């Protein structure tokens, strides 16, 4: 049954926007610096085209979906998770493609904050006589576009802080033994998390302690290899580190200014990109906000921070730097002489304690994965 022109079935609209959001979610971690957008095109109640932002950020979702719909796009409705672009970037505007294809109705989940678009796409579609609805499942779309929106509005990427600890919040024994606290299913889930982020961020202490590879080792998951970023104020990272020899994806090292060029050259020769970031107040670490702004300036929108305890605490100390927590808990305890997941914040008053709202709970194998958002 087709609804009369101008009247639409809200349940069907919501179901189709949900389908577009699911397509958008597929691209997370693979489209930076662009957002991951989903588009579903329907005609007479049947889906005739689906598309999502291609790895690397182009082509855009709408043109992918239009390509699949072909002539069926004439008189069709397009459901898009972000306002279609109206600017000439490296691809022609999606608004023009929708108009040229003869789409007659566009349902948009949220406006695009990019100043080149920012309502202009909606206006252009309306000016062409297309019926446009804005705001369907906007909260869900904001969650998917959170990294892109944070960069566009605050020059900061979305940060998910991932930690894996015992029930009592320990990540190693007194002697430093840390492998493995969580089981294989949790580690697999952690790799999937890496794949949905543009980059993994660790402190150099973690590199020295564990010599990790830090890539997403699920075949086909990270279509664009996850960037591996090391916060290394003192330039302690050895040029022989495993991540420089193994695994996929670029290695970026952020350090404080003033190191001799030879020290940088050794790491650059090993394949790393090295850049300088302002130090923190102690001069020993990096300023967490400056580090994140530098990553946003390089195009990253979604960062998975994986510790160690110093980096995690530095991020949490910064106002509004950590957006989400992904905390794995193993059903085990180490006790007070073990290494804590977090260095001191420090905190004296409970009223100043950062609080979170749980958004999901999963049980990978014997472990728990709780995800939280800043409250
Ligand atoms: C869309 N559909 O799938 C995406 C959009 O550099 P360009 O030309 O690729 O443009 C990037 C901008 O386009 C980006 O900042 C955002 O505003 C929008 N992304 N728009 O219509 C898409 N990924
Ligand atoms: Zn576009």
From TrEMBL:
Alphabetized Pfam families for the sequence: dCMP_cyt_deam_1, RibD_C
Catalytic center residues: 62
Catalytic activity: 5-amino-6-(5-phospho-D-ribitylamino)uracil + NADP(+) = 5-amino-6-(5-phospho-D-ribosylamino)uracil + NADPH + H(+); 2,5-diamino-6-hydroxy-4-(5-phosphoribosylamino)-pyrimidine + H2O + H(+) = 5-amino-6-(5-phospho-D-ribosylamino)uracil + NH4(+)
UniProt key word Metal-binding: yes
Residues noted as binding Zn(2+) in the record, renumbered to the chain: 60, 85, 94
Binding-site residues for NADP(+), renumbered to this chain: 164, 180, 210, 308-314
Pathway(s) it belongs to: Cofactor biosynthesis; riboflavin biosynthesis; 5-amino-6-(D-ribitylamino)uracil from GTP: step 3/4; Cofactor biosynthesis; riboflavin biosynthesis; 5-amino-6-(D-ribitylamino)uracil from GTP: step 2/4
The organism's place on the tree of life at top rank: Bacteria
Cofactor mode of binding and number, as noted: Binds 1 zinc ion.
Cofactor dependency: Zn(2+)
GO molecular function: 5-amino-6-(5-phosphoribosylamino)uracil reductase activity; diaminohydroxyphosphoribosylaminopyrimidine deaminase activity; NADP binding; zinc ion binding
Biological process, per Gene Ontology: riboflavin biosynthetic process
UniProt EC number: 3.5.4.26, 1.1.1.193
Keyword Ubl conjugation: no
Keyword annotations of the record: Hydrolase, Metal-binding, Multifunctional enzyme, NADP, Oxidoreductase, Riboflavin biosynthesis, Zinc
Domain CMP/dCMP-type deaminase: 11-133
UniProt-annotated binding residues for substrate: 178, 194, 206, 214, 217, 306
PANTHER family registered for this protein in UniProt: 2,5-DIAMINO-6-RIBOSYLAMINO-4(3H)-PYRIMIDINONE 5'-PHOSPHATE REDUCTASE, DIHYDROFOLATE REDUCTASE FAMILY PROTEIN (AFU_ORTHOLOGUE AFUA_8G06820)
Family: In the C-terminal section; belongs to the HTP reductase family. In the N-terminal section; belongs to the cytidine and deoxycytidylate deaminase family.
Protein task: Converts 2,5-diamino-6-(ribosylamino)-4(3h)-pyrimidinone 5'-phosphate into 5-amino-6-(ribosylamino)-2,4(1h,3h)-pyrimidinedione 5'-phosphate.
Designated name of the protein: Riboflavin biosynthesis protein RibD
Annotated source species: Teichococcus deserti
């Amino acid at each position: 049954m087709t609804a009369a022109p101008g009247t639409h079935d809200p349940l069907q609209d919501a179901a189709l926007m949900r389908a577009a959001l699911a397509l958008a979610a597929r691209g997370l971690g693979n489209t930076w610096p662009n957002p991951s957008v989903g588009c579903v095109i329907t005609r007479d109640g049947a889906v005739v085209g689906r598309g999502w932002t291609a790895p690397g950020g182009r082509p855009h979702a709408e043109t992918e979906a239009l390509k699949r719909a072909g002539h069926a796009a004439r008189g069709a409705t397009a459901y898009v998770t972000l306002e279609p672009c109206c600017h000439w970037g490296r691809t022609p505007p999606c608004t023009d493609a929708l108009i040229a294809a003869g789409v007659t109705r566009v349902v948009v989940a949220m406006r695009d904050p990019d100043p080149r678009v920012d309502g202009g796409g909606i206006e252009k579609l309306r000016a062409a006589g297309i019926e446009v609805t804005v705001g369907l499942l906007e909260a869900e779309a904001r969650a998917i576009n959170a990294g892109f929106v944070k960069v566009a509005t605050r020059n900061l990427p979305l940060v998910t802080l991932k930690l894996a600890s015992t029930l009592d919040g320990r990540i190693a024994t007194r002697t430093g033994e840390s492998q493995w606290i969580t089981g294989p299913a949790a580690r697999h889930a952690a790799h999937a998390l890496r794949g949905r982020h543009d980059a993994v961020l660790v402190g150099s202490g973690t590199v020295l302690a564990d010599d990790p590879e830090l890539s997403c080792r699920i075949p086909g998951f990270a279509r664009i290899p996850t960037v591996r970023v090391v916060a290394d104020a003192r330039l302690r990272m050895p040029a022989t580190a495993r991540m420089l020899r193994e695994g996929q994806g670029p290695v970026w090292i952020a350090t404080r200014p003033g190191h001799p060029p030879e020290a940088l050259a050794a790491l650059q020769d090993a394949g790393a990109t090295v850049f300088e970031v302002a130090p923190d107040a102690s001069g020993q670490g990096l300023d967490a906000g400056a580090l994140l702004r530098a990553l946003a300036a390089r195009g990253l929108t979604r960062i998975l921070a994986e510790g160690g305890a110093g980096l995690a605490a530095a991020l949490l100390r910064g106002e509004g730097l950590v957006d989400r927590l992904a905390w794995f808990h193993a059903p085990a305890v180490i006790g007070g002489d073990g290494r804590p997941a977090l260095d001191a914040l420090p905190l004296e008053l409970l009223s100043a304690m950062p609080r979170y709202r749980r958004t999901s709970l999963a049980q990978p194998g014997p472990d728990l994965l709780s995800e939280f958002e800043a409250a």
